[in-house]
Write a structure and sequence with these properties.
Alpha-Beta Plaits; Multidrug efflux transporter AcrB transmembrane fold; 4-stranded antiparallel sheet; Gyrase A, domain 2; 23 strands; 4 domains; alpha+beta
Length: 621
């Protein structure tokens, strides 16, 4: 009666073995480390750079070990014995290498190679456990609307010019409107008919005051909300791509409310370095080369294509289109096997590009790459203490200069890029887009590694105390069956740890609370089963039949109770954020593992111990 077929025992053994292997990496604590990378994707971190960093550590008296270069040559890693050494090392290396390199605090895994080969990795730790920085950024949505009004003014001006309607335009960002002032009511009415035909989504209102004939142009409330939403989403995507350059284990970039974005970088302790990375923005401008016969306004920029020659070149001041018009960008190779970026513009951007190039065939067009950076300089104060100063600047370079062979449209390519890595980074920046609206740091907070260690210690202690009390209670109250429940509880903890490690879930302090709650719920399922067995024994059933009936009849109650909790956990994850999601993930996974171990796992142990015995007269329960 109480026997499992061999395949069920084999299944239980296989699941437990695999779970134990994938939970094992969590026993290997990571080393505090420094990661060195270039400010651009094409920069190589070779042995000389690593030697400079090691020399800086030697001069500063900071011990380290395990210095190594990444396989792709784009980063280097140095390990340390303590977080204090890590912080000292970061400052010493950054001063030695300068602002051309990103020196970030990180955690280097110590998982054995044989576990890495099967993709076994420890759970990722959240900000509250590993330490790091927390930023709350405020997006200036009014500036996004003002930028759109400026763009709208250019579109309206171009439309009126095609119909030879003279008007003076005033952008009023404080009122979120555009005013077109005409010399006569007839000109205003002609413009109104034209604009309603070409721009039907806008709101128009004719105004008259003395001898001024004005047309008020506004975006509808729905259009304004759409502009703000797109600006926020564009900033969100751009920030996600920027923080990925840090290489942190689990960065968090998510929206909060109407106009705020939360950025959390676990393992990063230097606020200045983190702000430099997430504030890094770049854009492209497509400009025609300066022709004195056609224009008088130009700017001169550095040109870095060695095949044509280093130096400077003049471009017209007014761009044709900017990177904001790019809807897609990918990488490829030209006929010579050199890297290129394939660009796709929006329909409006493609129309502007076509108009500009169809009349300028044979003329040079430059692609200007603009990157906004922060330069850090070091000095000493009057007391001789080291101090750092930051300075923001725009790094503007021509990355491509080519002759317009024919009129261009929505799709074309950029060649003359230094390396495949630079092409990939440029395509990434273009896909992410420039920041659609400026942002300010509304809040910044640093969580020290010592606090993270205290949180981990407190969380582990809570699990140990909770588990110890449960184990003692079950042994004293249910005896043999209490031992079965305790073994199932241990298996549940292993399965939960393995599952979170495999799916890459992030463990937070609320997540530890979810684990503690899961342990209690796992025992609760066993209590239901054992109480049911007791009732069956009191009703007169023999021990073997009481065991079978207890597991069978308690299953419905266990399923109903856990199903409702699963639904709640799923809702918490979908509508919650941050700490709430961390709790919901561990609770959801824990319920599934506890149902497996409390029912199938404990039943297997009972079947192994009692299923083959025909002389069981009494159960110690």
């Amino acid at each position: 009666m109480n026997r499992y077929p061999p395949w069920k025992y084999l299944l239980l053994l296989t699941v437990l073995t695999v779970a134990s292997i994938y939970a094992l990496p969590n026993l290997y604590a990571p080393d505090p480390a420094i990661q060195i990378s270039g400010e651009s994707g094409g920069m190589q971190i070779g042995t000389p750079i690593l030697r400079q960093a090691e020399q800086a550590l030697e001069d500063a008296g900071v011990a380290h070990f395990g210095g190594q270069l990444a396989a792709d040559g784009r980063s280097a890693l140095l390990r340390f014995n303590s977080n204090a050494d890590q912080l000292l090392a970061r400052s010493a290396i950054q001063r030695r290498l300068g602002s051309d390199f990103v020196v970030a605090l990180n955690l280097a895994p110590t998982t054995p190679d044989w576990l890495r080969r099967i993709n076994a990795a420890p759970m990722k730790l959240g900000l509250d456990l590993s330490g790091g920085v927390h930023f709350l950024l405020e997006v200036d949505l009014d500036a996004a609307v003002a930028t759109r009004l400026e763009s709208l003014a250019g579109e309206v001006r171009a439309l009126l010019r095609t119909e030879r309607i003279r008007a003076r335009l005033q952008v009023r960002p404080e009122d979120q409107q555009l005013l077109a002032i005409f010399r006569s009511a007839e000109a205003r009415d002609r413009a109104l008919r034209l604009l309603r035909d070409r721009q039907p989504t806008l709101q128009y209102e004719p105004l008259e005051a003395a001898d001024r004939f004005t047309l008020q142009i506004r975006h509808s409330p729905a259009a304004l909300r759409d502009i703000e939403e797109k600006a926020l989403q564009q900033n969100l995507i751009a920030l996600k791509n920027r923080v990925n350059e840090l290489g942190v284990a689990e960065p968090l970039v998510q929206r909060q409310g109407r106009a705020r974005i939360v950025v959390e970088l676990p393992g990063i302790q230097d606020t200045a370095a983190a702000k430099r990375i997430i504030g890094k923005t770049a854009n492209l401008e497509f400009r025609l080369a300066y022709d004195p016969a056609r224009s008088t306004r130009y700017e001169e920029f550095e040109f870095r294509d060695a095949s044509i020659g280093q130096g400077t070149h003049r471009l017209e001041r007014q761009p044709i289109v900017t990177g904001e018009a790019v809807t897609d960008a990918g990488t490829g190779f030209d006929e010579s096997g050199l890297p290129q970026v394939n660009i796709t513009l929006s329909s409006d951007g493609g129309a502007k590009m076509h108009r500009a190039t169809r009349n300028n065939v044979g003329r040079l067009m430059g692609v200007l790459f603009i990157e906004y950076k922060t330069r850090v300089t070091y000095d000493t104060d009057d007391q001789g203490n080291p101090i750092s100063r930051t300075e923001q600047y725009a790094d503007e370079k021509i990355i491509n200069l080519a002759t317009v062979q024919s009129a261009l449209g929505v799709s074309f390519r950029i060649t003359g890029i230094g390396s495949q890595y630079e092409a990939q980074e440029l395509a990434l920046l273009l896909r992410a887009g420039a920041l659609a609206a400026p942002m300010t740091f509304a809040e910044e907070r640093t969580v020290g590694p010592s606090l993270g260690a205290e949180n981990i210690a407190a969380g582990v202690l809570s699990i140990q105390i909770g588990m110890l009390l449960v184990v003692l209670f079950m042994l004293c109250y249910y005896r043999f069956f209490g031992l079965v429940a305790n073994l199932s509880l241990l298996a549940n903890l292993i399965l939960l740890t393995a599952a979170m490690s495999i799916i890459g879930a992030t463990l937070t302090l609320p997540g530890i609370a979810g684990i503690v709650l899961t342990l209690g719920m796992a025992v609760d399922a066993n209590v239901l089963i054992f109480s049911r067995i007791r009732e069956e024994l009191k009703s007169g059933l023999p021990p073997q039949q009481a065991i079978d009936a207890g597991y069978a009849r308690a299953w419905t109650t266990i399923l109903d109770a856990n199903l409702t909790t699963l639904i709640v956990a799923a809702i918490l994850y979908l509508i919650g954020s941050g700490a709430v999601q961390g709790f919901a993930v561990t609770l959801f996974i824990g319920i599934l593992t506890s149902m497996f171990t409390a029912v199938m796992g404990s039943r297997g142990l009972v079947n192994l111990a009692l299923g083959g015995r025909t002389n069981v007269q009494k159960l110690w329960i």
